[in-house]
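Hi V.,

Quick status before I head out on leave. The structure for the redesign project is tokenized and pasted below; the design run finished overnight.
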């Protein structure tokens, strides 16, 4: 039996790859899928935390079909290695959940010469989606879901490392804008549907690093009243996944799991092509060193 025939088997266990899967929304989603009988692979950058999460998830769900890959997704070379490692061990990929994120509030360049927020939030997702597209395209009904927030700020194509002026808020808005513009281009050019999930306020540690002291203060004040738990957010992820699968959705915006169609990104003419071409260049030939 060929890998393609095996992937198409109706009774084959569905497979999910979840980045940022050691805690927060990623881990809660992994747990929910394992309880439904999925096979799950989580990606995290700390080997010990990955191993602990795998053991705890297997114990809590009674499903031992969980594994991990350790990778620093702010490095595109490591992201590519992790994607290739997953593809070598799996014959199908039903759900790619691009969830990993960390907010850097100071200007940091990776060893590959990329601004760290842009590298992790945007470019690593590009690399993973592209590397695994052959696998998702061969899996009937496969879906990709990428997580973003509310922030939107058009990318400065002439200052990608934000050398002229840096702010965490602006960096966050730029990669989220670029990711969503690129998502639209991906849906135009590739066969696997990719949709966008916006979780809103969730009780995770990432909000502790939300850019801007005033914004962090406001978030902490309203958190007890409006924020949801990671487990509740995971159910919203599953609702978005189910809707996308049932409707064959493509390029749909899912705030809190509810479909709302295309989000207004305020692109300028040609932005889609520019973002696509830029991502292609940066993910194949990134700058060689931080400066």
């Amino acid at each position: 039996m060929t890998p393609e025939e095996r992937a198409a088997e109706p009774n084959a266990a569905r497979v999910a790859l979840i980045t940022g899967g050691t805690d927060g929304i990623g881990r809660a989603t992994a747990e929910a899928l394992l309880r439904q009988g999925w096979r799950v692979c989580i990606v995290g950058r700390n080997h010990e935390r990955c191993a602990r999460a795998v053991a705890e998830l297997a114990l809590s769900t009674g499903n031992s079909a969980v594994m991990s890959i350790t990778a620093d997704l702010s490095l595109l070379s490591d992201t590519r290695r992790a994607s290739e490692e997953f593809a070598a061990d799996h014959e199908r990929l039903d759900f790619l959940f691009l969830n990993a994120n960390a907010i850097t509030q100071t200007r940091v360049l990776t060893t590959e010469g990329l601004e760290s927020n842009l590298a992790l939030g945007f470019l690593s997702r590009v690399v993973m989606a592209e590397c695994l597209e052959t696998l998702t395209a061969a899996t009937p009904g496969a879906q990709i879901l990428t997580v973003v927030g509310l922030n939107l700020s058009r990318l400065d194509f002439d200052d990608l490392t934000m050398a002229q002026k840096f702010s965490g808020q602006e960096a966050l808005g730029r990669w989220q804008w670029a990711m969503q513009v690129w998502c639209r281009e991906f849906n135009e050019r590739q066969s696997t549907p990719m949709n966008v999930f916006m979780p809103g306020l969730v009780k995770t540690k990432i909000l502790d690093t939300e850019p801007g002291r005033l914004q962090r203060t406001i978030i902490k004040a309203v958190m007890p009243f409006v924020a949801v738990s990671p487990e509740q957010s995971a159910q919203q992820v599953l609702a978005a996944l189910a809707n996308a699968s049932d409707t064959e959705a493509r390029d749909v915006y899912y705030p809190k799991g509810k479909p709302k169609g295309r989000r207004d990104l305020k692109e300028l003419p040609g932005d889609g092509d520019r973002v696509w071409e830029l991502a292609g260049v940066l993910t194949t030939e990134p700058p060689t060193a931080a400066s």
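Above is the designed sequence. The chain has one domain: 3-201+231-284.

G. will cover questions while I'm gone.

Best,
W.
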